[in-house]
Amino acid sequence: MERMGFKTKTTVATILTTQEWLEFQEVKVRLQRLVDSMHEKCRLVYKLSREEGMSQKQIAEELNISENTVESHMGRALKTIKGGLKSFFLTL
């Protein structure tokens, strides 16, 4: 899109209201705190899956653990996140 000769780039920040942006930032902070509070293996499995995009099989091979163990760690991680963010979304 061009406006007065300047090219503008639409980003997530430009399409959100200030309030929405602040709420999004709060969710990011809360999510990071929840991830930081997880046990080491659970946190590592979560980060490899969600931040590095690795499959359960790849994570199992990388950490030398079974795919069932990876699945168990991810289940705990997601339960922690769901529980930790539930109260936040109820207040919005």
TrEMBL record:
One of its GO terms (molecular function) is sigma factor activity. CDD domains: Sigma70_r4 (cd06171). InterPro entries: RNA_pol_sigma-70_dom, RNA_pol_sigma70_r4_t2, RNA_pol_sigma_r3/r4-like, Tscrpt_reg_LuxR_C, WH-like_DNA-bd_sf. Signal peptide: none annotated. Residues 29-80 form the RNA polymerase sigma factor 70 region 4 type domain. One of its GO terms (biological process) is DNA-templated transcription initiation. This is Sigma-70 family RNA polymerase sigma factor. It comes from Pedobacter psychroterrae. The lineage of its organism: Bacteria, Pseudomonadati, Bacteroidota, Sphingobacteriia, Sphingobacteriales.
